Amino acid sequence: MENNKSNKGSVLFLLIGLKALLTIGIGLAFLINPMGMITTFSYLLGLALLVFGALGIYDGIKKKDESSFWQLLIEDGVLQVIVGIILLAWPGLTPNIIMIIMGIWMIFGGIIQFIIANRYKDSLGQRNFRGVITVILGLVIVFNPSIGVRIFTMIIGALSLIYGIYMVLLLLRFGKGN
């Protein structure tokens, strides 16, 4: 029994170590060549938007009887699904076009947050702030998409690198579970 536990700990240690190294590699790739990673970024973002959009649609349907802004949640979800499909179907679009699409999506999403906050008095301060910031960022990206590409890919790279290093440090600190 003890040997079986030790083997499971070793396998888990190895898997976490591999995940850490993969995460560090992805982070370095995004930091070293952010423009070259845009196709990968497009796939990841497209997949995330499909999932978040589907969850938004589900949330809107679920809140139909509870809330007066359920239609806006569904519209936001549908918009996310559409952008997700575009990013997955055409990942080779130029980075600037992808950023313009994202910027437009952010502008509409921010407007929806602002409408929900003001029309339905739902988390007024938080939604207003989030909506205004999202619209501003969307406008910045639409009018200067190359900055958006660099910023997003650099953030992904930095976060991946930090997370990977964090996992390695945890593994070194705790060892193989002994």
**Domains, number:** 1
Give the overall form.
globular
Structural class, judged by helices and strands? mainly alpha
Task: Count every beta strand, where a strand is a DSSP E run of 2 or more residues.
Answer: 0
* Oligomeric assembly: single chain
Would you tell me the overall average pLDDT?
82
**Low-pLDDT windows of residues:** none
Distance between the termini: 15 Å
Number of helices: 6
Radius of gyration: 20 Å
Order of helices and strands: HHHHHH
Main sheet characteristics: none
Proportion in β-strands: under 5%
User: Percent range for helical residues?
Assistant: over 70%
Structural write-up:
This protein has 178 residues and is mainly alpha-helical. It has one domain (37-174). 85% of the residues lie in helices and 0% in strands. The protein contains six helices and no strands. It has helices at residues 2-32, 38-62, 70-89, 95-120, 124-143, 145-174. Helix 2 (38-62) packs antiparallel against helix 3 (70-89). The longest helix has 31 residues, at 2-32. The chain is globular, with a radius of gyration of 20 Å. The two termini are 15 Å apart. The model has no long low-confidence stretch (mean pLDDT 82).
Chain-wise SSE layout:
Blueprint (H helix, E strand, L loop, with lengths): L1 H31 L5 H25 L7 H20 L5 H26 L3 H20 L1 H30 L4
Helix pairs in contact: 1-6, 2-3, 3-4, 4-5, 4-6, 5-6
